[in-house]
Each structure stands twice: as C-alpha cells, then as structure tokens.
C-alpha cells in the first residue's frame, strides 16, 4: 500500500486535490492522509475514511511526525505572503521534515519560471525547488500558471465601474483554473511521472487584457474597458483603495511579470498528466458568472 499525504488539505487547492484523488484518480480513501494546521477542519474527509493529521509548517518536529509512514507527499505552498522570508522558511521546514521522515517522493506546487519571474513571491518558489532537489529524493515540481480564479478578486469591482486598470501592457498570459491544477496534482500524486520532473501547468491559449476583458463582457453582458496604466499608477490606486502593502506589491509585480512575457507560455503538461484538456478561460468565466457579477 502506497500512502499519499496532502498538506494544506483545509485550503481551496488541498480540498480539490483530495476530491480528485478520490473521484478522478480513484485512489482508495485508506491510502490518503489529509494534513492541516487545524485537523478539525477536515471532518468531511475523515467521514470518507481519509486519515487526518496535524501539520504545522512552523513546527518541523511536528511535521516529521506527520510525515512518518508516508511514501509521497504533496507540499502545497503556504499562504504566508505578508511575512518577508516566512513562506520559504516554512517550505524548507516541510522539505527537511519529509527527508527526515523517510518520504520517498516529494511533489510541490510552484510557479512558472521562478528563476526569472518578477512576481514578489517567486524567490519562495525557487528556493523551495532548490531545497527539494538538494535532498536527493525523487520529486515532481508542479509549476502552476496564474489561476483564472484570481480574476474573481477584482473583476466584480471592475465590472461595477466598467473599467479595468492594469499594468500588464500588451503582455499575454495563459490562465488555468485552480481545479485543473488540483486534478493534475492528484494525478501526479497517484502516479508520479518517471524520473524527476518539472512540469508547467497552463491553459491552452495565451490572452492579453483586451481579449480577457472581451470574454468577461461576453459572459456577463456588461461593458468592460481596459485602461493600461504604469506600475506606479496601479500601486497608487490600490493604496488609495486601502489594500495592504504586501498585496499591492504582489499584484503589481504580477502585472509586471505579464508585461515582461514571463507568463506567456502554453504547454501540454496538463493533458499529459490527466489525459484531458484544460478548461478554457471562457468556459471558466461562464461557470463563475454569478461570482463575476456579485
């Protein structure tokens, strides 16, 4: 029996991975361990026969205990973006714990091109990838493209005003849904690619701001004008709206990364892992119409 553990199991991506392990990859519940800082949030999975464990990324000794008896672990990147260096420290603790616990294979959710990315949290991903490779353990790095889900944070407001201010210029990016990333992660966890692999999970097309806005308008029936601004102007507008500094830095740096072309890539890695086509951004927007117009 091969034991599979998913960290961050109470989060949106972790929950979706567990769903796909059971429903899409057809893994037995008895072979799965769901881990979270707060296992009480995992009761729905416990009810399905999945073992739950506490895994706090700030407690390496506790992580070693959580990872004991595990063959493959999926380390989902944490959400500590506000603390400089905090997330990388957490990830390195998880990697070290996996090695100490005797885990045979590490999977990790990263991002495209972390070595040259301008996104503020790219060093966290690059450093984690390097830490995994330094263990000598077999690994699968899952570099997830920018989620289509991320648009749900700002598009409702943009549609309400009829204007989308962006600093991505004429850059393009290929979006993928969080659920598709979860399905690919579940597939890789259930059946890792041969040898050590770094795969980049993208949608099937790269689009610019005007094309994305047109998709949003078509789905919602509301006009959306794209206004291209500088990074400084975008940051100023976000500051005036009361966004915290770390979030402003992240969002502005993401636009800069798009403008630089570092998110403009399309691969077939999702289909190779899952045997399916990724959901198009148009289809994703259509499925989330209520959220876009909320």
From TrEMBL:
<feature type="domain" description="NmrA-like">
    <location>
        <begin position="3"/>
        <end position="235"/>
    </location>
</feature>
<dbReference type="InterPro" id="IPR052718">
    <property type="entry name" value="NmrA-type_oxidoreductase"/>
</dbReference>
<keyword id="KW-0560">Oxidoreductase</keyword>
<dbReference type="GO" id="GO:0003955">
    <property type="term" value="F:NAD(P)H dehydrogenase (quinone) activity"/>
</dbReference>
<dbReference type="Pfam" id="PF05368">
    <property type="entry name" value="NmrA"/>
</dbReference>
<dbReference type="InterPro" id="IPR008030">
    <property type="entry name" value="NmrA-like"/>
</dbReference>
<dbReference type="InterPro" id="IPR036291">
    <property type="entry name" value="NAD(P)-bd_dom_sf"/>
</dbReference>
<protein>
    <submittedName>
        <fullName>NAD(P)H dehydrogenase (Quinone)</fullName>
        <ecNumber>1.6.5.2</ecNumber>
    </submittedName>
</protein>
């Amino acid at each position: 029996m091969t034991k599979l553990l998913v960290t961050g199991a109470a989060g949106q991506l972790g929950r979706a991975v567990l769903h796909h392990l059971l429903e899409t990859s057809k893994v037995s519940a008895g072979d799965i361990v769901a881990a979270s800082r707060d296992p009480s949030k995992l009761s729905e999975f416990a009810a399905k026969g999945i073992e739950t464990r506490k895994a706090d990324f700030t407690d390496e000794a506790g992580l070693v205990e959580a990872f004991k008896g595990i063959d493959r672990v999926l380390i989902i990147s944490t959400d500590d973006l506000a603390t400089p260096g905090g997330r990388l420290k957490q990830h390195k603790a998880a990697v070290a714990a996996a090695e100490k616990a005797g885990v045979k294979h590490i999977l990790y959710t990263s991002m495209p091109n972390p070595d040259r990315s301008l996104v503020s949290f790219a060093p966290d991903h690059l450093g984690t990838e390097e830490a995994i490779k330094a263990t000598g353990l077999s690994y699968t790095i899952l570099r997830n493209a920018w989620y289509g889900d991320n648009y749900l944070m700002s598009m409702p407001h943009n549609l309400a005003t009829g204007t989308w201010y962006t600093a991505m210029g004429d850059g393009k990016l290929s979006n993928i849904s969080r659920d598709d990333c979860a399905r690919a992660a579940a597939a890789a966890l259930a059946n890792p690619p041969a040898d050590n692999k770094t795969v980049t999970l993208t949608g099937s097309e790269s689009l610019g701001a005007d094309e994305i806005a047109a998709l949003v308008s078509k789905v919602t029936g509301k006009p959306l004008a794209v206004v291209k601004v500088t990074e400084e102007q975008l940051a100023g507008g976000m500051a005036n709206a009361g966004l915290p500094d770390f979030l402003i830095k992240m969002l502005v740096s993401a636009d800069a990364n798009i403008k630089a072309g570092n998110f403009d890539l399309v691969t077939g890695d999702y289909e190779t892992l899952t045997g399916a086509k990724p959901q198009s951004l148009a289809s994703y927007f259509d499925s989330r119409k209520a959220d876009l117009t909320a």
